Amino acid sequence: MIEAQDLTKVYGGKAAVDHLSFTVEPGRVTGFLGPNGAGKSTTMRLILGLDRPQSGYALINGRRYRDLKDPLHTVGALLEAKSVHPGRSARNHLLFLAQTQGIPASRVEEVGDAGVTRAVIGAGLYLTVLGLLALAIGTMIRHTAGSISTIIGVVFVLPILTGLLPSSWGAHINAYLPEQAGTLITHTHQTADDLLSPWQGFGVLCIWTVLALAVAAYLLEHRDA
Length: 225
Known about the structure:
- The protein is an alpha+beta fold.
- It folds into 2 domains: 82 residues, Rossmann fold; 110 residues, no CATH class.
- The chain is built from 8 helices and 3 strands.
- The longest helix is centred in the middle third of the chain and has 29 residues.
- The protein is elongated, with a radius of gyration of 23 Å.
């Protein structure tokens, strides 16, 4: 988790970052949006300890970057592309970092070509199985508006509701919901907070879909007989 509290950085009398506070939860993709000079890069430099704020602080997993024992084991950063050797491939750059920081070389493959290939193929598989789940729900309900509402509820609303539960309960229930489990296969790498592997998550989605199709087939056979 990344936490910024009341960050302020002033250059030459002009505030580049002005009392900024935010929290980036684990496993969430978060981006800064703004024009040149809005303070996006400065904020990241403050998080990484490359600049010192006039006020406030930034923490990574509850600690300042400079206090992390092995920073690259906790957070990776690339602020400017020119810091990468122009003659080195992305894989070799990651391999260089792994070898110099005591990170297993297998980790490079996890976030490299194999992860990208799985994510690309997984996106198609995920949408296909999700479409079958939607078909099953539509067959069971047999009402267009009701089917759409139910699908939206299953895919979008249920994860929000489980997020209101105590953290330990909510995280475990959330991990086995169709949408949350299924999307793991579209990720290029697995985070420490993922309770399931990408293929395990896809398997959970398939189980939900098979059960829904079985119920839909039963209702179709007996209700319409």
